[in-house]
Amino acid sequence: MIRRTLTGLILSTLAATAVAVAVQAPAAHAACTSIPANHDPAVIVMVYRTARSLNVNDKVMLSGFEAGWVESHMNNLPCGDKSSLGVFQQRWDYGWGTPEQIMDVVYASTQYFSRAIGCARDNPGYRPGQVAQCVQRSGFPDRYDQVEGKARALWAEARRVAETAANASTDVTGDGRDDILTFTQNTLADVYAAPSTGSAFAGTSVKWNDFFALGGETALAGDFNGDGRDDIVAFTHGTTGTAAGDVYVALSTGTGFTGGAKWHDWFAPGAEVPAVGDVNGDGKDDIITFTHNPAGDVYVALSSGSSFGAGVKWHEFFAPAAEYPAVGDVNGDGRDDIITFTQGPATASDVIVGLSNGSSFGPGLKWHDLFAVGAELPRVGDVNGDGKDDIVTFTCNADADVYAAVSTGTSFAGTTVKWNDFFCTAGEFPILGDVNGDGKDDIIVFTKGATNDVYVGISTGTGFLGGAKWHDFFGLTGETTL
Predict the structure, then answer these.
(1) What are the b/e assignments for 315-338, b being 16+ CB within 10 Å?
(2) Any keyword Signal (predicted)?
(3) Which positions ≥6 away from 295 have C-beta within 8 Å?
């Protein structure tokens, strides 16, 4: 096992700052004539993931989004006042690093949050804006607190993107019933599992791995060696450093996960959105990444059973920034396809599908023209048990409605077909899984917050039953739950 430590990763990122010689000025430095009105979606995701990798608290996290919005509107600016550069407008001649380092969002974010942690620790009464001022030392110290609302909205958007790929199968015991997993993603990096008995999830603090998926990494699950038991995978992301773009897998033994082993050394870097699915139909789950930027590329690395092959482009425009990508076998041919929810207003909430032919994804075709509006949380799974994955959306608000549109093999049928009228309120996290092994995916929600309960709504094939508590302490706030 290649055992990584959180301290080691942080130090390797910061080591480049320990340069004894003076930093040379860049050949030319331009002042910004203007700052973009809107944020760069990729930048906010990288800032968020970096903060998570350092296990910052909410105050420090919010301070970073306040500082980033004030300084650059969350854009990686190649210009600025005097020698300032990048998302936080850090100055190369004031010890923040070289111009090249400052223009690396992960590096710049690490520099900001490392200092903000100290400011917050030494000044426990500081507001987030005061923490930002402590780091930035601006001539206009009140600006940061004034943008708290905008900063919170950007933080929420970044978190939503980082949690996009939540549709992972989790039958870790191989008994045909999906189980639940939680990754602490803190300095301990523990992984806990609670297997399904068919009527409840068993086990409160049953640790299946004691060091996997550090903060800021994306944790998912899938059967990567084809033995019928779902394994876990971690995407390190990043753009520079010894662990940038690595992919680690820990195989399931049925009662625990083995130590993490590197299966790929460059996949889903930066702000890309990774996913898992069997795209070539060989019985082993592969890895997929959506660049989630204006290019909208989709890359695949196929599983050999012991590693992932080279990343190959399978689509050149799918799920650009602001859309919600997913994976599932929507036509029932045994190969997982790609799906994207455009998530606009009611007039622009389309669902687009790219079918897999085993070596690439076909052109994006509209399968639904009104589903998962705005901030709703869409998921993909076979809820009626016909072998074709369907789409489900959770409003996760005061209404707490759940809607489904079932696959016909060529489209999703049903526009406002409500399958449950009270499941998943604000702040809770929903997923799908076949928890009783009847071939139909059910709905599961982690309440988080003060209760940390897990509720299940069993699928009847035409609706979901009322929520029943299957666990009373699992998936704490800040943990990643599958």
Answers:
(1) beebbbbebbbbbbbbbebebbbb
(2) yes
(3) 316, 317, 320
Given CA atoms 332, 336, 337, 338 in this order, what sign does their dihedral have? positive
pTM for this prediction: 0.85
Please, are residues 372 and 341 in contact by the beta-carbon 8 Å criterion? yes
As given in the structure block, the two tokens for residue 56 are: 């910052």
What is d(CA 66, CA 55) in angstroms, rounded to the nearest whole number?
A: 18
Q: What amino acid occupies position 16?
A: A
Q: Where are the beta strands (DSSP E) in 19-159?
A: 84-85, 90-91
Q: Tokens representing 71?
A: 């300084």
Cα gap 131→184, rounded to integer Å: 26
Burial of 345 (0-12, 13-18, 19+ CB in 10 A): exposed
What is the Cα gyration radius of the chain? 22
* Dihedral angle of Cα 200, 439, 273, 241, to the nearest 10 degrees: 60
- C-alpha to C-alpha distance for 169 and 283, rounded to whole angstroms: 13
3-class SS string, 280-300: CCCCCCEEEEECCCCCCCEEE
pLDDT for the residue 94: 83
DSSP letters for 387-453: SS-EEEEE--SSS--EEEEEE-SSSEE-SS-EEESS---TT-EEEEE-SSSSSS-EEEEE--TTT--
> What is residue 478's predicted lDDT score, i.e. its pLDDT?
81
Q: H-helix or E-strand containing 323?
A: none
* β-pair type (412-413, 418-420): unpaired
Consecutive 10-residue runs of the chain (482 residues): their mean pLDDT? 43 39 51 90 89 89 97 93 91 87 90 95 96 94 95 90 72 97 91 97 92 90 97 86 85 97 94 94 97 94 98 96 92 97 88 98 97 92 97 95 97 93 93 97 94 97 97 90 90
Distance CA 378, CA 331 (A): 18
CA distance 378 to 424: 12
Between CA 423 and CA 330 the distance in angstroms is 24
